[in-house]
Amino acid sequence: MMTAYGDRPMLIGGDLTFGVGDEWITSLNPSTEKPIGRVPAGTAQDVARATAAAAAAQPAWAALTIWERGARLKALAAAIRARAQEVRAMEAADSGNTIANLGNDLHKASNHFEYFAGLMSEVKGETMSSLSSGLHMTLRVPYGVVGRIVPFNHPFMFATANLAAPLAAGNTVVLKSPETSPLSATVVAELCRDVLPPGVVNIVSGYGLPVGDAIARHPQIRRIGFTGSVATGLAIQRAAAESTVKHVSLELGGKNPLIIFPDADPEAAADAAVAGMNFAWAGQSCGSTSRVLVHDSLADAVEKRLAERLAAIRVGDASDDASQMGPLNSALHRDRVHRLVAVGKGEARLVLGGGVPAGRSFERGYWLEPTLFADVATGMRIAREEVFGPVMTIQRWSDEAEMLRIANDTPYGLTAAVFTRDIDQAFRAVRAIAAGVIAVNGSRMHFVGAPFGGTRNSGLGGEECLEELLSYTEVRAVHITL
Ligand code: NAD
Questions:
Q1: Domain 10-252+459-481 is of which CATH architecture?
Q2: Is any ligand 1 atom within 6 A of the Cβ of residue 462?
Q3: What's the pLDDT tens digit per position in 312-355?
Q4: Is the entire prediction scored with pTM above 0.85?
Q5: Could you tell me the distance, in angstroms and rounded to a whole number, from the CA of residue 433 to the centre of ligand 1?
Q6: CA dihedral 238, 240, 241, 244 (to 10 degrees)
Q7: Is 175 in the pocket of ligand 1 (CB under 6 A)?
Q8: What is the bridge-based pairing of β-strands 257-260 and 247-251?
Q9: What's the N-to-C CA distance of the chain in angstroms?
Q10: Cα 143 to the chain's mean position, in Å?
Q11: How far is the CA of 398 from the centre of ligand 1 (A)?
Q12: For 70-92, how does the pLDDT look when each residue is reduced to its tens digit (9 = 90+)?
């Protein structure tokens, strides 16, 4: 069948290739369910070839001066910018993320390469003067081949940004693209083929089993960086542990509280909650501010404002410039989200949404209206499980200690936000809440350079910062007799 993007290859050892298997994954546009292209369903053999190519390329890549490696990373950033318009259109059709907001992802993609290219001279060790008999120092060395496994929610941004730190530290990479929305990673494959030496980046498309699992188990891959769900993160830790000793970092899900104290401006806090939900990605964002915990005295005002703001969101085809929210990413994910919404309807009070938007344009595609639940209570599934969709909940509180207990009453610990004018109150919450990233009087305040990562079941290891760069190196102690 002729499709808009046709058959798109993987990148192995500098060659654009369809691999050794004969199975394909057809990508459907989630706004229309139309097939728009295909990628090979990669095999464990493809992963083995990609890893061998990465291992062969690594010594020469690590031997380049930081200026030479940095120049290649900056060239990748420029190559991304040159194809930005084309990638935005492809990504909107492939992922359902709205085209109007994809500029953010494209900017982040190129910015990461420039940021880590500029940070490379910070990969350095220390000297120790405790013994006078010689010279004692630490060196930082790359792991060798790094495996990176990418989720569906920002496919292009993750398939690019996740390369930057491992490459800057002197590693080569085998990256797996997501099986839904796999097309934009094939552009990354073309850009890497054009800009980098063969084998430095290898991109394998396919399903978690066998491709992701083969990466997690490959004995030559000693460092894995994973972004995705908790269940898969645990599976990767198990598979890694069964193969060889590996360093695994995990960026996983969240059920992020946004806490509103009685002295806050309820409308400003509600607006920040809506911004933090990332409706442009239909709420499919790990850091979504989906769980509003509001003091009793402001609960009615916050509910009214949230309902007004959610009702005004223009839902439509992600490729339409006017759309503020598109569909969910796949049929499988839509079904999961709708099941959890049905559970929520049985547990809590549905204020708004909860169904497929009305109209002919929503007869096909994976839709859910912006959805708001109130009267949510501790212990409900809708209060504890990550929905990963355009769904917000409101839970009231009256006692601060009880509220802080509720805030931590999920297995997660990714982001949190606190709204108050009282700095002491804000800091009590900052200290008490289990989260890797906490905003006070705002949302979406993260920027590259500040660590992003979770605690508890939300993950291990901060990314997008110096700590991420260093996490792609090992420390070696060197003792020299003088
Ligand atoms: P997922 O775990 O289903 O899939 C992620 C990737 O893992 C895909 O490429 C998939 O093919 C692969 N995979 C699946 N099974 C595997 C296995 N057994 N071994 C190895 N790889 C396997 O996640 P998803 O549905 O694509 O993404 C949504 C999740 O990602 C949400 O929970 C979200 O919160 C999380 N996420 C977290 C962050 C963060 O920075 N913390 C960012 C984005 C998304």
A1: 3-Layer(aba) Sandwich (3.40)
A2: no
A3: 999 999 999 999 999 999 999 999 999 999 999 999 999 999 99
A4: yes
A5: 25
A6: 160
A7: no
A8: unpaired
A9: 71
A10: 23
A11: 36
A12: 999 999 999 999 999 999 999 99
Distance 382 CA to ligand 1 centre (A): 21
Best residue for ligand 1 mutational test, from 47, 104, 105, 149 (most atoms within 8 Å of Cβ): 149
Please give the Cα distance from 131 to 126 (Å, whole number): 14
Q: Which of 279, 287, 285 is nearest to 257 (CA)?
A: 287
427 C-alpha to center of ligand 1: Å?
32
Strand 257-260: give its sheet, edge to edge. 349-352, 371-374, 391-397, 291-295, 257-260, 415-419, 437-440
Domain 257-448 maps to which CATH number in 3.40.50.720, 3.40.309.10, 3.30.470.20, 3.40.47.40? 3.40.309.10
CA pair distance 454, 300, nearest whole angstrom = 31
| Cβ–ligand 1 contact at 216 (below 6 Å) | yes
**Mind telling me the catalytic residues?**
251, 286
**Which pLDDT tens digit goes with each residue over 446-475?**
999 999 999 999 999 999 999 999 999 999
What is the C-alpha separation between 401 and 385, in angstroms, rounded?
Answer: 22
Is the pLDDT at 362 greater than 80? The verdict is yes
Tell how far the Cα of 134 is from the centroid of ligand 1, in angstroms. 48
Whether residue 132 has pLDDT greater than 80: no
Q: Is the CB of 240 under 6 A from ligand 1?
A: no
Ligand 1 within 6 A of CB of 464: no
- Cα dihedral 334, 340, 346, 352, rounded to 10, equals -60
Structure tokens belonging to residue 468: 């991420």
- Residue nearest ligand 1's atom 23 by CA: 228
Burial 53-62 (b: 16+ CB within 10 A, else e): bbbebbeebe
| 372-406 pLDDT per residue, tens | 999 999 999 999 999 999 999 999 999 999 999 99
Q: Measured from the CB, is residue 153 less than 6 Å from ligand 1?
A: yes
Contact (Cβ atoms closer than 8 angstroms) between residue 158 and residue 235: no
Which of 461, 466, 474 is closest to 148 using CA atoms? 461
Among 27, 47, 153, 340, the mutation site with the greatest number of ligand 1 atoms within 8 A of its Cβ is 153
235 within ligand 1 shell (Cβ under 6 A) = yes
Domain ranges of the chain: 10-252+459-481, 257-448
What is the pLDDT at residue 115? 98
Tokens at 306, concatenated = 């949230």
| Cis peptide bond N-terminal to 210, omega within 30 | yes
pLDDT value at residue 402: 97
